[in-house]
Amino acid sequence: MADKEFTYSDVSEHATKKDLYMVIHDKVYNASSFVDEHPGGEEVLLDVGGQDSTEAFEDVGHSDEAREILEGLLVGKLKRQEGDPKPKSYGQSSTTTATTDSASAGVGLYAIILIGGILAFLAYKFLQTQQ
Ligand code: HEM
């Protein structure tokens, strides 16, 4: 059963509380039996019902226990088709780019402060020798 393949449109047909599928890391889970037990509330699960909820799931930082429960809900894997939304590989693509950007911006800022400091020091030394 867990070998079954679902397309995005298959998954999107299961978006009600009694029949709730979601995609996490390209695997398809049937969360219907867990909705009432979810410590984070049923609302959030219903929100992502029938969709890719990888980001929402990972953003919360779910425990290993949560991941074990998740494995028990597995019904199949996602069959990606052309035109489907891109894989939401968490911690890669967009997130990494953002981190790299801010990191290099940080380095740039330090470089400017450092160069500014050196210039100020040289100017100070220069003025001293002038006197
Ligand atoms: C079927 C998929 C999911 C399972 C099996 C699951 C399971 C769990 C479990 C076991 C916890 C307790 C804390 C922990 O062990 O990490 C939890 C907490 C939580 N979950 Fe989920 N979760 C799922 C999907 C989601 C999604 C899609 C969201 C969307 C935002 C979400 C939001 C939360 C929040 C906000 C908490 C924290 C509740 C609190 O500490 O007050 N969960 N979840």
UniProtKB/TrEMBL annotation:
Residues 3-79 form the Cytochrome b5 heme-binding domain. The keyword Transport applies. Keywords: Electron transport, Endoplasmic reticulum, Heme, Iron, Membrane, Metal-binding, Microsome, Transmembrane, Transmembrane helix, Transport. The keyword DNA damage does not apply. SMART domains: Cyt-b5. InterPro entries: Cyt_B5-like_heme/steroid-bd (IPR001199), Cyt_B5-like_heme/steroid_sf (IPR036400), Cyt_B5_heme-BS (IPR018506), Cytochrome_b5 (IPR050668). Residues 78-100 are annotated as: Disordered. It is a single-pass membrane protein. One of its GO terms (molecular function) is heme binding. The chain crosses the membrane at residues 107-127. GO terms for cellular component: endoplasmic reticulum membrane. Its main location: endoplasmic reticulum. GO terms for biological process: sterol biosynthetic process. It is found in: Endoplasmic reticulum membrane; Microsome membrane. Belongs to the cytochrome b5 family. This is Cytochrome b5.
